[in-house]
Amino acid sequence: MTRIAVVVGSTRPNRLAPAVARWVLGVAATRPGAVHELLDVADFDLPLYDEPWPAMVGSYEGAHTRRWADAVASYDGFVVVTGEYNHGPPAALKNALDYLYAEWNDKPIGFVGFGGAGGARAVEQLRLNSIELRMAPVAASVGLVSATDFASHTEIAPTAGRDAQVHTLLDQVETWARALASVRGGGITASPVAR
């Protein structure tokens, strides 16, 4: 069964991302053919990148890194929920992406952004990051706007049509997850990195 993680990409107190992720999971629960689970960056207590080698080397010394690597490796694709901080993604999310390399490779990634401009600028930066991680960012995304998709800027209240956007996003992530399974299992690996 295809496993898709809905990633909560912020760690601050009073964050909105978990509520947005629960909404995405609620929509996903109506779909057959894939398992969708919450993967919260905050649950892993990742410090600023502290491994002695670049992630591309794949030599992880920290227990926190190995735990994060095991979690990410267990999924076939990802839907990242991200707010927008100063026209970019939360630092904790970028840090979590940077911790790993091979565990992200050849897997699709989609985005649900939120904020004043629907998280669009954070999502565009994350698309570039994901390409460098040898991921396949899908075309569809969802952009929730603070003024219209949240009640009093604190509770998610998606406008009409947003559920359909999530379905389109999940269609693409799930399709690519199945298509890329043969690449992940076919022995195609990253080039070795000289230390």
UniProtKB/TrEMBL annotation:
The keyword Oxidoreductase applies. Signal peptide: none annotated. Residues 2-145 form the NADPH-dependent FMN reductase-like domain. This is NAD(P)H-dependent oxidoreductase. Its EC number is 1.-.-.-. One of its GO terms (molecular function) is oxidoreductase activity. It holds the Pfam family FMN_red. Keywords: Oxidoreductase. The keyword Oxidoreductase applies.
